[in-house]
Task: inverse folding
């Protein structure tokens, strides 16, 4: 035990204390204490690598963030770094583990990335002095006292089964889920990752009916099979983004990674990518109602099976569903529609229209890809502070409105009358914006067009970016 005390462990360790190696540089100990003739046990975490760093001063260890443009660099002061650098979560995840991806990737002057990740469920609490202001900045002023709302009742979605098929090519809804009892992909070991895969296969293969399907491990796929699935938007590729690589997402690739999908290939689950699970409902055409129903029902079935195995999903009332990247906290939901907007996308106000509607655009190839033929992937920009139903409702109503704008431009007509509704101050709460939308103008302007913007109790937008790690 003298060796342990020399390493910095408390002097009250008893002779029955045991050391368990968790991840490199981290030891867990079952510590037995004698108190009032009774033996007590406690769990302690020791990150030896972090202790070694503490031999160096704050000035020697504080990262140079002078050329960085991400939320982490904006928030992380020397005081915060000094306060948190000696802390670690129960799995041994440290402050430097959180911020390394943002330190290694300064970003672009005009693109604000997040710059940090979580390593386990406890990261958001242990390092809250860092995460809370980042979450506030990234999620429109979301406060530490705010509570997230969850609504996975698909019947609460109004409309969505009538998006114009002449413009909408496909629809999808996806989210991520983290399984309680495991660390996140940024830090988990090979054995833990394989345990996540094994549990996921058992759970997913128990589904039946519309959700009956099969699991396909990446390591058993040929290059040709992988390329085809990626081209069809069914499969994820090996991470090549420096943001993901620096966060440890690609370790041991493709070990314990794979895809499960139902027989119709309309319901998919990615295993051990950026999150433990990435759940996707998708199909051709514009029936978002059907896609969202399948998403909600399938997600509930999966959660029920995991709970039977004593592994629920990470969730709390403040942050909603806990995921690896702070940008995905809350619902983790992205409701995307591939829609043709060749005229509107060249309009001078296109970017502003998207921002006012709380939507964002991508090329059909994903993040940072260009549009082909005027086709864009339009999705919700918000994740935290509003429910799944509210976020999908935004997509449905926003896409309907943009299609009407596209039709007017095709006829050579102006859309200034519609755009005038959107010229509110940038910090106007969404509830005020959409109430005005619905009650004062939209119903008369688009009398033949059903639009049902909901009341959205989400925080005002005080800062805006459309990027994620």
Result:
């Amino acid at each position: 035990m003298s060796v342990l005390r020399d390493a910095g462990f408390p002097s009250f360790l008893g002779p029955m204390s045991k050391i368990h190696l968790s991840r490199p540089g981290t030891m867990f100990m079952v510590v037995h204490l004698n108190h009032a003739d009774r033996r007590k046990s406690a769990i302690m975490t020791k990150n030896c690598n972090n202790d070694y760093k503490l031999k160096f001063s704050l000035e020697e260890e504080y990262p140079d963030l002078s050329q960085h443009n991400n939320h982490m660099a904006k928030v992380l002061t020397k005081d915060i770094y000094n306060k948190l650098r000696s802390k670690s979560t129960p799995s041994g995840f440290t402050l430097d583990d959180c911020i390394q991806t943002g330190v290694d990737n300064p970003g672009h002057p005009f693109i604000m990335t997040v710059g940090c990740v979580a390593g386990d469920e406890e990261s958001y609490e242990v390092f809250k002095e860092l995460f809370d202001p980042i979450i506030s900045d990234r999620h429109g002023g979301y406060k530490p006292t705010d509570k997230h709302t969850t609504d996975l009742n698909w019947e609460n979605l109004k409309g969505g089964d009538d998006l114009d098929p002449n413009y909408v090519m496909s629809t999808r809804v996806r989210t991520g889920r983290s399984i309680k009892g495991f660390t996140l992909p940024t830090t988990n070991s090979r054995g833990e990752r394989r345990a996540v895969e094994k549990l996921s296969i058992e759970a997913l293969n128990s589904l039946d009916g519309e959700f009956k399907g099969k699991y396909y491990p990446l390591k058993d796929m040929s290059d040709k099979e992988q390329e085809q699935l990626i081209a069809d938007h069914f499969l994820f590729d090996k991470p090549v983004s420096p943001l993901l690589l620096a966060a440890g997402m690609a370790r041991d690739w493709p070990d314990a990674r794979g895809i499960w999908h139902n027989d119709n290939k309309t319901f998919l689950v990615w295993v051990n990518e950026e999150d433990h699970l990435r759940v996707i409902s998708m199909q051709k055409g514009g029936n978002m109602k059907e896609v969202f129903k399948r998403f909600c029902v399938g997600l509930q079935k999966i959660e029920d099976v995991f709970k039977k195995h004593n592994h629920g999903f990470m969730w709390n009332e403040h942050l909603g569903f806990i995921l690896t990247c702070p940008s995905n906290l809350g619902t983790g939901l992205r409701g995307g529609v591939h829609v043709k907007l060749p005229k509107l996308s060249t309009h001078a106000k296109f970017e502003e229209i998207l921002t006012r509607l709380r939507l964002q655009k991508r090329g059909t190839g994903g993040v940072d890809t260009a549009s082909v033929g005027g086709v864009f992937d339009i999705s919700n920009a918000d994740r935290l502070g509003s429910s799944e139903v509210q976020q999908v409702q935004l997509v449905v109503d926003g896409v309907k409105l943009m299609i009407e704008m596209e039709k007017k431009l095709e006829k050579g007509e102006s859309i200034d009358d519609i755009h005038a509704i959107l010229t509110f101050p940038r910090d106007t709460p969404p509830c005020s914006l959409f109430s005005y939308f619905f009650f004062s103008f939209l119903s008369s302007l688009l009398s033949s067009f059903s639009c049902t913007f909901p009341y959205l109790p989400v925080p005002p937008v005080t800062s805006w970016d459309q990027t994620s790690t």
